[in-house]
UniProtKB/TrEMBL annotation:
A Pfam match: fn3
Protein's name according to its UniProt entry: SRCR domain-containing protein
PROSITE patterns (alphabetical): FN3, SRCR_2
InterPro entries reported in the protein's UniProt record: FN3_dom (IPR003961), FN3_sf (IPR036116), Ig-like_fold (IPR013783), SRCR (IPR001190), SRCR-like_dom_sf (IPR036772)
Protein's organism: Amphimedon queenslandica
Transmembrane segments: 380-406
Signal peptide as annotated in the record: 1-27
PANTHER family: EGG PEPTIDE SPERACT RECEPTOR (PTHR19331:SF465), SCAVENGER RECEPTOR DOMAIN-CONTAINING (PTHR19331)
One Gene Ontology cellular component annotation held by this UniProt entry: membrane
Paired cysteines (S-S): 220-230
Domain Fibronectin type-III: 254-351
């Protein structure tokens, strides 16, 4: 009897692992993710019926009753899936009977701004409570027919020879209205182009007739990195004949010709700079020790960081026989230039002798590294692992119950009076 109980517990472990693994592996998806329903592959509805991920499950979006709203929703859906836009002749809703389940979104509303949202969850929405058999009331499901005609990436900026600003929207280049164009927007454009934002000058210029004009205004603070970061709004009229343009200055260059003076008791770093102007405040000098010590109790000066207005800096406190990489950049109130670097090794100094140093010139440029994160679905292994944990807890409880029952029966049998 006891063997059968343990056999039952073993079966329950296997069932629990399978259930939890399927729960996590089959249903996992990232909240707000969009896809075409694979159930309709190889049918007339292929690449038409849209699904959205909610509550770790794929479900459906009920179609909006307004055609214009459906068109904007379809455009956002297409862009989120990596397409340019929704086809002008494509469908935005489809009637399916019986309606597929579950329907997570009762309705979406994407703004009428000239630059549409980049993610469907950025649109306002009404979310249905999660019910496995919930259907859209009128059986109309959101749909889209996406096309890929991109010639540029959304948000990109380019300047024509006439200094006209072109912005990529929905995979196509558009000139911009100059009705509300000012130095604030011009600064953002120059910064995005890698130019000197402080020297940005707005301009009114012409463009070829085959380039469409985006009827949009941008409300910027001036410190945004991209024009897309500014608040955009629709303009219902643009100045005829000219569009928004900008004149940008190049950024100040980095210091050059780094050398080391080894005739002094301390190492002196020299450099040249030709882009000096009244806005420059300091030079930044930074040296870092390239040796890594494994003993945490060792105390040493691993870094040197200083500011100077001169074209030289005395490197005080460097460790002997240690390689340092020393970098110099020009500092302005609004930016810091790229760095130029040199490797410096301070020789061992004996009593009554001077310090020697060896150098190797290695020009480098600083770079901005963009990090991204992505949300991955939980794998089958993760589902099985979680299933094992849950099953183990369940089995422990079950075995405790079995032990209590056996103990009580033994006690009852022991104290039961003989007839």
């Amino acid at each position: 009897m006891l063997f059968k109980r343990y056999q039952l517990a073993h079966i329950l472990i296997c069932v629990s692992i399978a259930v939890v693994a399927v729960e996590f592996a089959e249903g996992t998806c990232t909240r707000g993710a969009i896809r075409y329903d694979p159930e309709y592959n190889n049918t007339s509805l292929n690449n038409t019926v849209v699904q959205i991920c909610f509550n770790n499950r794929w479900g459906y979006i009920c179609a909006n009753s307004d055609g214009g709203a459906r068109q904007r929703i379809a455009n956002v859906i297409c862009q989120q899936m990596g397409y340019s836009r929704h086809s002008d002749t494509g469908i935005t809703e489809i009637w399916i009977d019986p309606a597929p389940t579950p329907s997570f979104i009762e309705w979406f509303y994407c703004s009428v701004k000239p630059i549409s949202q980049q993610n469907i969850l950025d649109c306002s929405r009404s979310v249905n409570s999660y019910q496995p058999n919930l259907k859209c009331p009128n059986y109309y499901i959101a749909a889209s027919n996406c096309i890929n005609t991109s010639v540029c990436q959304n948000g990109q900026i380019q300047l024509l020879d006439t200094n006209a600003v072109l912005l990529c929207v929905n995979g196509e280049w558009h000139a911009l209205c100059n009705t509300t164009w000012s130095s604030t927007q011009a600064q953002v454009v120059c910064r995005q182009l890698g130019k000197n934002a402080q020297g940005a000058i707005p301009d009114n210029v012409s463009v070829p007739a085959n380039i469409s004009v985006l009827q949009a205004g941008f409300e910027c603070n001036g410190n945004e990195k991209f024009l897309y970061n500014c608040l955009d709004y629709r303009l219902y009229s643009c100045s005829s004949g000219t569009v928004a343009g900008v004149i940008c200055e190049n950024l100040p260059g980095p210091p050059s010709n780094l050398t080391v003076d080894s005739k002094q008791s301390d190492i002196i770093l020299h450099w040249e700079y030709t882009d000096r102007n009244s806005d420059m405040s300091n030079f930044s000098v930074y040296c870092k020790n390239m040796i890594v010590y494994s003993q945490p109790h060792i105390k040493f000066k691993s870094e040197l960081n200083t500011l100077t207005k001169n074209n030289n800096a005395t490197l005080i406190g460097l460790l002997a026989n240690t390689v340092y990489t020393c970098c110099v950049s020009a500092v302005f109130p609004y930016m810091k230039t790229e760095s130029r670097c040199i490797n410096v090794t301070k020789g061992f100094q004996e009593a009554g002798s001077s310090t020697s140093s060896t150098i190797s010139f290695t020009p480098t440029a600083t770079a901005t590294v963009a990090s991204s994160s992505s949300n991955g679905a939980i794998s089958w292994i993760g589902g099985i692992f979680i299933g094992i944990i849950i099953s183990a807890v369940f089995v422990i409880i079950l075995l405790l119950i079995i032990k209590i029952v056996i103990t009580r029966r033994s006690e009852d049998k022991q104290f039961k009076p003989n007839k």
